[in-house]
From TrEMBL:
Protein name (Swiss-Prot/TrEMBL): prephenate dehydrogenase
Gene3D superfamilies noted in UniProt: 6-phosphogluconate dehydrogenase C-terminal like domain, Enolpyruvate transferase domain, NAD(P)-binding Rossmann-like Domain
Reaction equations catalysed: prephenate + NAD(+) = 3-(4-hydroxyphenyl)pyruvate + CO2 + NADH
EC supergroup of this enzyme: oxidoreductase
UniProt pathway annotation: Amino-acid biosynthesis; L-tyrosine biosynthesis; (4-hydroxyphenyl)pyruvate from prephenate (NAD(+) route): step 1/1
The EC number(s) this enzyme carries: 1.3.1.12
Organism of provenance: Marinomonas piezotolerans
Domain Prephenate/arogenate dehydrogenase: 8-295
Molecular-function annotations in GO: NAD+ binding; prephenate dehydrogenase (NAD+) activity; prephenate dehydrogenase (NADP+) activity; transferase activity, transferring alkyl or aryl (other than methyl) groups
Keyword list, A-Z: Amino-acid biosynthesis, Aromatic amino acid biosynthesis, NAD, Oxidoreductase, Transferase, Tyrosine biosynthesis
InterPro entries: 6-PGluconate_DH-like_C_sf, Enolpyruvate_Tfrase_dom, Enolpyruvate_Tfrase_sf, NAD(P)-bd_dom_sf, PDH_C, PDH_N, Preph/Arog_dehydrog, Prephen_DH
Family annotation (PANTHER family): PREPHENATE DEHYDROGENASE, PREPHENATE DEHYDROGENASE [NADP(+)]
Recorded family membership: Belongs to the prephenate/arogenate dehydrogenase family.
Length: 733
């Protein structure tokens, strides 16, 4: 390559808006010497004077042979003739690529011209653009933080593919790889159909009666919807000629749905309209958030720290948001019921949103009224509708455990995909539970996502639940039992928590037994209840009040049944001063709980207790730091690895601020003493961050907890809670 510029000589063929934007970005960053070729010589003259390219060029031997990269940026149907012109002079080590909006037709053109697609031709497509055209519309920042799709072929040259990735990254794009056919189907729906609708709408209205007034009074909606009808007609004619089959398929789907909407309007069927509109709104809001996260990527990555000043105390009364795990299950049961469920204090943030979105994608109408109040319009056990795209559980394992069984019971096939850590997690036990019960769930790779769920007759859930007992897997088994032909009876080593049982029973499921569970359900009926406060938050508030001298708080809506009761017994044994202010009420035995500053005593937890309280173990360890004497936790190393990892982080943190915590023959020993304080890094784990905040609150010098972003995503009103209770704390970004 020449001039020591990273990409050497680059030729853009078709110096319009996209080609010009590409050239300008490379040129401004000194990454290449830019040549432009266009059948309109005027564009080249403008290109040179506007600083988009260095030199105008022809598609002759002299030019082609000195190029390191050639980018085709003409409308897609012109590419075949351009390839023919280039072919005689093309070097094998020149990267030949394109930016066309369709990929199948471009590959076919290359195959027609070269006999077979040469290894140095690798197609690409930036998902960025505008309704403008021509070189004067070139914008060197057009591709920044946008996606660029590359569609390598089986025999594409790997070095040149690497160069193509670097090229797109150099202009600021994020590169994703896709196969050609998938690209054309996805783009037909996401880009080609919207352009067709915009053109057709404007054309239909422009020729309608009253067209003058229609345009004169065009409100924002018309403008927003039709902006892209100003796009270049040649380019778009080419797209529809080139991607005929995929656009017809997506157009048919859309016209069917449009016909349904027409019928709904004709029949004054407000419920159907409302269903479509709420689903569409939430889907779009969800996509926009994902998109914002992409474009705000860097801002999002900024770490949030929370500093707690020493000598704080907490006062006041508070209703904490509802239990996360119950929230998932309540939405799902509401969806599967006949009739409407009114649910209050549902936690609608974080992972629960993933479950809610999946239900909406399958036709469930969920109305939100603020402050966690929702109305779920049940569709019946088998009444879910096939989603138009795969169900995405993102990184929510709970959503996966709870959605998979209900998908297995439907009459349609569906793909389940995920993101992040979930992609590398094998869900062997979940899959065995499903498939042993007669469901049909297959995984492409060793129990990992994505899964394909196909309709099958679920016989019954029986025997012993596979693997580690967990409340998620027990819930999967209960949900799967709702679809079984026979009554299900299965064994678990871990008893079903009373709160979970109460929730399922509220919808008409009958669950008898403790570790041998028999699940029966006749009719699932909509329910009305308020969810009790989230376990993690209850424990955090209770311990905060217990640790900080001068504190006294009241927590509303605290469940006192099942495992909650044993946890409160344990806290009381540790010396926490708890006062129940009223009698249990409602489905979950909710009560008002008073807590005040307490002198804590050390505790010894057996391996069984460590297992039972594993979710709140980090907070219990912090409480032990402030107990006078030595506490011992047994069996921590027998917990599943992620609980153990969490505890290792806690041990490190306690020692770092000057506490005394050590491993002794597999047991965790905590010598109570008030630590000095300092900086703590939660490494992005929300539960570790929550426990560290507790730890810092009583340190002599206070402390700062770093990397609290995930915690704030899970408890968005944490700052508000801290202010309401008077905890001296501040957020730093
Ligand atoms: N406009 C957009 O938002 C996006 C467009 N694309 C794709 O990028 C390509 C270019 O689109 P735009 O830059 O928007 O169009 P444009 O109209 O601004 O530029 C196309 C250029 O190609 C030239 N051209 C046409 N036939 C030619 C031929 N046979 N030989 C040499 N030059 C020729 C035209 O004179 C024009 O200058 C298209 O394939 C389009 O599908 C991809 C992503 C976004
Ligand atoms: O202007 C817009 O909103 C677009 O949709 C731009 C666009 C047009 C065509 C493509 O192949 C990719 C992006």
């Amino acid at each position: 390559m020449q001039d020591n510029k990273e990409f050497g000589n680059v030729l853009i063929v078709g110096l319009g808006m996209i080609g010009g934007s590409f050239a300008k970005s490379l040129k401004q960053n000194g990454l290449a010497t830019l040549y432009g070729a266009d059948r309109r010589s005027g564009e080249l003259t403008l290109g040179v004077s506007a600083g988009v390219i260095d030199y105008p060029a022809q598609l002759d031997g002299e030019t082609i042979q000195k190029m390191d990269i050639i980018i085709l940026a003409t409308p897609v149907r012109a590419m075949e003739s351009v390839l023919s012109e280039i072919k005689p002079y093309l070097r094998e080590d020149t990267l030949l690529t394109d930016v066309g909006s369709t990929k199948g037709s471009v590959v076919a053109a290359a195959a027609a011209v070269f006999g077979e697609v040469p290894a140095n031709f690798i197609p690409g497509h930036p998902i960025a653009g505008a309704e403008k055209s021509g070189v004067l519309a070139a914008n060197p920042r057009l591709f920044e933080k946008h996606m660029a799709i590359v569609t390598p072929l089986p025999y594409s040259d790997p070095d040149l593919l690497d160069r193509l990735h670097r090229l797109w990254r150099a202009v600021g794009a994020d590169v994703v790889s896709m196969d050609v056919e998938h690209h054309d189907h996805v783009l037909a729906a996401s880009s080609h159909l919207p352009h067709l609708l915009a053109y057709t709408l404007v054309d239909a209205l422009a020729n309608a009666d009253r067209s003058q007034d229609i345009f004169r009074f065009a409100a924002g909606g018309f403008r927003d919807f039709t902006r892209i009808a100003s796009s270049d007609p040649t380019m778009w004619r080419d797209v529809f000629l080139a991607n005929k089959d995929a656009t017809l398929a997506t157009l048919d789907l859309f016209t069917d749905r449009l016909a349904d909407m027409r019928k709904a309007i004709e029949e004054s069927d407000g419920a159907s309209m409302y269903g479509v509109f709420t689903r569409a709104k939430s889907a779009r809001d969800h996509f926009l958030r994902l998109l914002e996260q992409r474009t705000l990527g860097q801002a999002q990555e900024k770490q949030v720290s929370i500093a707690v000043a020493p000598a704080s105390s907490v006062q006041g009364q508070i209703t904490l948001i509802g239990d996360k795990s119950l929230s998932h299950r309540a939405l799902i049961m509401g969806a599967l019921s006949d009739g409407v469920s009114e649910l209050a204090n549902v936690d609608l943030v974080g992972d629960v949103k993933v479950t809610m979105q999946a239900l909406r994608d399958m036709g469930v109408v969920i109305e939100e009224f603020g402050h966690g109040t929702v109305r779920v319009h049940g569709v019946g056990r088998k009444g879910l509708r096939a989603p138009i795209a795969p169900i995405n559980v993102h990184d929510s394992a709970t959503s996966l455990y709870l959605l998979l069984p209900i998908l297995a019971g439907q009459d349609f096939s569906v793909e389940v995909i995920g993101e992040g850590v979930l992609l590398n997690t094998p869900f062997t036990h979940l899959l065995s539970l499903m498939n042993l019960s007669g469901a049909s769930v297959s995984s492409a790779a060793a129990g990992c996502l994505p899964f394909r769920v196909t309709p099958a007759d679920i016989k019954s859930v029986g025997g012993e639940l596979p693997g580690e007992p967990s409340s998620r897997l027990i819930s999967s088994a209960i949900l799967l039992s709702l679809f079984a032909e026979e009554v299900s009876e299965f064994k678990t080593h871990f008893p079903l928590d009373a709160k979970m049982r109460a929730l399922f029973e509220a919808f008409g499921v009958s669950i008898s037994g403790d570790q041998l569970l028999k699940v029966q359900s006749n009719n699932l009926c909509g329910a009305q209840f308020e969810l009790p406060a989230d376990l993690q938050q209850v424990v955090w508030n209770v311990l905060l009040a217990a640790l900080l001298p001068g504190s006294s708080i009241r927590l509303y809506g605290v469940s006192s049944i099942g495992r909650m009761q044993s946890l409160f017994d344990l806290l009381a044994k540790m010396g926490v001063r708890l006062h129940w202010m009223d009698d249990p009420s409602g489905v979950f035995g909710a009560r008002v709980l008073g807590v005040s500053f307490s002198k804590l005593t050390p505790v010894s937890l057996s391996a069984l207790q460590v297992y039972e309280f594993r979710e709140v173990l980090p907070q219990l360890a912090v409480a032990a730091v402030y107990a006078e004497g030595v506490s011992v936790f047994s069996g921590v190393s027998q917990l599943p690895y992620f609980y153990e990892d969490r505890m290792s982080a806690i041990v490190d943190g306690i020692n770092q601020v000057g506490g005394d915590c050590r491993w002794d023959k597999g047991m965790l020993q905590i010598n109570g003493q008030i630590p000095e304080g300092g900086d703590l890094d939660s490494a992005g784990n929300d539960l570790v961050a929550l426990a560290f905040l507790l730890l810092s609150a009583r340190c002599r010098q206070g402390g700062t907890v770093r990397d609290c972003q995930k915690l704030l995503n899970q408890i968005p009103n944490l700052e508000e809670i801290m202010v309401m209770l008077g905890l001296k704390s501040s957020l730093h970004i």
